[in-house]
Design a protein that fits this description.
By secondary structure, the chain is mainly alpha-helical. Helices cover 78% and strands 8% of the residues. It contains three helices and three strands; from the N terminus they run H-H-E-E-H-E. The chain has a three-stranded mixed beta sheet with strand order 1-2-3. Helix 3 links the parallel strand 2 and strand 3. The longest helix is centred in the first third of the chain and has 116 residues. It is flat.
Length: 207
């Protein structure tokens, strides 16, 4: 019985020693693996960070080159747009001026038309209203013919304003700095003939 107990005790001690040795070996191996895993993770993070920085720098350089190469065309386009806007504004002046002038005449005709249609208006008032309507229509027609004739003579942009006996003729400047004497004479002849005006009452200017 004593020998059997001694053998059991010896086996128990040996088992404990083996278990302890295995545990220590496992702990050591796990710690090294954990350190290696941590180091790999840190390296991956560092590589990712470096990669992102290189990509950002590459994009920045690419963008700068693109902007540099595109700058001259943008400037040329701006100059062209500025020139087009200037021409457009000049054309708009003549278009708008003619429109406003025609609207003014239309409003005058409407007022005289109201007199004609007013049953309480006197006969002489209606007569005057009718004469004024005819006079305005005749003036509008003469102005339109004069402006069309000026266009055929090379003055493509023009507008005529009549204020009593005084007549103002605005000619599109275009590439002209000044009008020649022949050009002034052409304009005067057309306007004086169509509007039955004295040459001295015709005032010509460039726009």
């Amino acid at each position: 019985m004593k020998i059997f107990k001694k053998n059991q005790l010896a086996l128990l001690v040996i088992s404990l020693m083996l278990i302890t040795a295995g545990y220590l070996n496992y702990t050591s191996t796990f710690g090294e693996d954990a350190k290696l895993a941590s180091a790999d993770t840190q390296n991956s993070v560092n590589l990712a960070s470096i990669g992102d920085a290189e990509l950002v720098n590459a994009n920045a350089v690419s963008d700068e080159k693109t902007i540099t190469t595109q700058t001259p065309p943008v400037q040329e386009e701006n100059n062209e747009v500025s020139s087009n806007n200037s021409n457009s504004n000049n054309k708009n002046y003549f278009t708008t001026s003619k429109l406003e002038r025609n609207v003014m005449y239309s409003q005058m005709i409407e007022r005289y038309q109201e007199v004609l249609e007013n049953q309480n208006a006197y006969a002489d008032q209606k007569t005057i209203a009718g004469e004024e309507i005819a006079s305005i229509n005749e003036l509008q027609n003469a102005i339109m013919i004069a402006e069309n004739l000026l266009a055929t003579k090379g003055f493509e942009e023009s507008v005529i304003f009549v204020n009593g006996e005084s007549i103002s003729v605005i000619i599109g400047k275009g590439e002209k700095e000044n009008l020649t004497q022949d050009e002034i004479a052409q304009i005067q002849n057309i306007v004086s003939r169509e509007l039955k005006a004295e040459v001295n009452n015709i005032h010509i200017s460039l726009k």
